[in-house]
Amino acid sequence: MIQQKDLNFNCKLGESKEFQASSGWLEKFKNHHGIRQLSIVGEKLSSDIEAVSSFITELQDLNVKEILTTDQIYNCDKIGLYWRALLTKTLAAKNEVVAPRRKKMKDRVMILGSANASGSHRVKMTLMNKSKSHPVFRTSIKLPFLFTTWIRNTLG
């Protein structure tokens, strides 16, 4: 699409009729202007900006009213970890055409982290899984996590 648009601009500007917007031209154009492909990740654009603004205002009011310090304010967040997931990209020799792969493993655990705003108290990270029969629960190795199971809310 970019190549076609450039051909159109070339005609409208009365430039050389011999110009061809080849794939090589496009690659050089992208490199010259710092254009690269990115993976679309996260949920940044799904944020409710108005709710965030009102929360910040309410939190600031609460801090003033209750005279809270950064030692008394905590934040907690979770992340899903697909602990058996394989790599999706690899390096290969010139003569290799394909890289065989296995079925995607979807074994997931959740990791929960929490700390106060000053950073003086960090709660030990918690690893959560659906089942107590998970291999990490049966290990005798001392790991830097608390372990628990979670029950998915079936009520919706």
UniProtKB/TrEMBL annotation:
Gene3D superfamilies reported in the protein's UniProt record: Homeodomain-like (1.10.10.60)
Keywords from the UniProt entry: DNA-binding
Domain HTH CENPB-type: 1-39
Keyword DNA-binding: yes
Pfam family name, one: HTH_Tnp_Tc5
GO CC entries: nucleus
MF term (GO), any: DNA binding
PANTHER family: JERKY PROTEIN HOMOLOG-LIKE, TRANSPOSON
Protein name in UniProt: Jerky-like
Species in which this protein is naturally found: Araneus ventricosus (Orbweaver spider)
